[in-house]
């Protein structure tokens, strides 16, 4: 009977870790923070017991201060920082805590001072080097890198290149970040570093390589939503729709907390469904994206782009106009957004659905395009773009050049292109259109003069050679 009772006591003790060990004495900051947030009174009791039992344990007291700081309780953190300073033994944990508290108060100079002291006190302890580099990366990247290279020299056993890569990533210097990430095997990178590596490659424009990195990261960390998200985006952009569909489903399955789903996830899900030939289902996802991001500035612009991608120009136009209506800043340059709106009207007018015939509906859409491009030229009178596209819209409304609607706008675009040494292809098109207009009107000298200008830019242009041949025959 005695043995049975003893066994029961042993089992009860083993099943009660709080009794067996004081959480605030464990050194596990996350567990300490959890207790501070869930039961601050009990946490305080445990702290008092821990310090009473080991009042000269500098590292323990500093760790308690760090836990309170991480829980957002700066005053308590300062209390234990000062208490740890009174201990007989000097500790880098204490000195670093001083820097952390200063940083929490936005006092970067004081933070740099404490981290500098910690580096001086123990040259081989990496924590202060890492924290110092984070503080100065935006003001003195050279100093930050220098400190990390120094600890790398002293401690070749540490994966310092990962820290350097993270600095460059945080400073948006993706080229340097990628170079550092690439020097490390995947197995030595943290989960965050792998995510940032893939994001850096994506932001540098290499979708194929970004997919490779994200896929390797996903094999190591299969439950990381950021890596699955990157795979979805990259597979979609490369039109690997079947694979992207699996990514989209997995991402939504993983994100059981809907607050962690981004509106861009729904946008890309919609792109995938449209790519697989399911436009109606794609629209459902776009509407979910809009509902998700109703308070996000510029969401209507993103939704407009989404509808443009699936060829729904009416909704793309609607949301672009909604976006423009939200702009109240009088100094904002609306010309780019207006140009995109004009292009939406243009694409609608020239879409397969609209057909080749010049119907009243098509003319109405072209007039809208022409009006919007007119606004662009008013806002950017020194750019050929508004005039050029205004000319093209008018040319479609006057395909036989009967009224010469496009002529003045081609001339205005050409004047700017010639003045600024613009793109030859655009100049040749303007010359060609004007030459053909004068040919139709039987004003051969002008038609020939423009054809000769084309030949100077492109001696093999078939239109110019043919017109000059006709002009020579007529002579």
Automatic annotation (TrEMBL):
InterPro entries per record: TPR-like_helical_dom_sf, TPR_rpt
Signal peptide: 1-20
Alphabetical UniProt keywords: Signal
Keyword Signal tagged: yes
UniProt cross-references to Pfam families, sorted A to Z: TPR_8
Keyword match Signal: yes
Listed name of the protein: Tetratricopeptide repeat protein
Annotated source species: Segatella maculosa OT 289
């Amino acid at each position: 009977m005695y043995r049975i009772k003893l066994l029961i006591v042993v089992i009860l003790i083993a099943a009660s870790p709080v009794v067996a060990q004081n959480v605030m004495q464990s050194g596990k900051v996350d567990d300490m923070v959890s207790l501070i947030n869930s039961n601050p009174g009990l946490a305080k009791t445990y702290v008092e017991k821990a310090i009473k039992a080991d009042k000269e344990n500098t590292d323990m007291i500093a760790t308690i201060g760090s836990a309170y700081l991480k829980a957002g309780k700066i005053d308590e953190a300062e209390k234990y920082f000062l208490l740890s300073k009174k201990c007989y033994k000097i500790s880098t944990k204490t000195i670093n805590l001083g820097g952390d508290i200063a940083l929490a108060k936005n006092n970067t100079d004081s933070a740099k001072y404490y981290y500098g002291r910690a580096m001086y006190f123990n040259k081989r302890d990496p924590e202060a080097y890492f924290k110092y580099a984070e503080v100065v990366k935006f003001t003195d990247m050279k100093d930050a890198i220098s400190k990390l290279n120094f600890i790398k020299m002293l401690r070749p056993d540490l994966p310092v290149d990962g820290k350097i890569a993270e600095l460059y990533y945080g400073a948006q210097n993706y080229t340097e970040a990628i170079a550092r990430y690439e020097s490390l095997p995947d197995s030595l990178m943290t989960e965050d570093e792998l995510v940032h590596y893939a994001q850096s490659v994506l932001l540098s424009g290499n979708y194929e390589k970004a997919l490779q990195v994200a896929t390797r990261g996903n094999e190591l960390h299969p439950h990381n939503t950021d890596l699955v998200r990157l795979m979805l985006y990259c597979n979609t952009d490369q039109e690997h729709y079947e694979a992207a569909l699996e990514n989209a489903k997995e991402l939504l399955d993983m994100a059981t907390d809907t607050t962690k789903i981004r509106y861009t996830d729904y946008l890309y899900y919609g792109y995938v469904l449209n790519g697989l030939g399911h436009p109606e289902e794609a629209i459902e996802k776009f509407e979910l994206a809009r509902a998700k991001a109703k308070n996000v500035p510029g969401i209507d612009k993103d939704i407009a782009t989404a509808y443009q991608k699936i060829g729904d120009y009416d909704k793309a136009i609607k949301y672009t106009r909604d976006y423009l209506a939200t702009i109240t800043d009088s100094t904002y340059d609306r010309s780019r957004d207006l140009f995109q709106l004009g292009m939406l009207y243009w694409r609608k007018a020239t879409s397969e659905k609209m057909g080749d015939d010049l119907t009243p509906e098509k003319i109405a859409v072209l007039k809208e395009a022409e009006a919007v491009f007119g606004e662009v030229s008013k806002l950017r009178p020194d750019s050929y773009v508004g005039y050029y596209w205004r000319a093209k819209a008018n040319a479609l409304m006057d395909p036989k050049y009967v009224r010469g609607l496009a002529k003045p706008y081609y001339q205005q675009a050409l004047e700017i292109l010639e003045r600024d040494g613009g793109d030859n292809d655009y100049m040749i098109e303007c010359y060609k259109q004007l030459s053909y207009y004068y040919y139709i009107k039987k004003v051969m000298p002008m038609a020939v003069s423009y054809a000769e200008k084309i030949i100077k830019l492109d001696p093999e242009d078939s239109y110019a050679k043919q017109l000059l041949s006709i002009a020579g025959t007529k002579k």
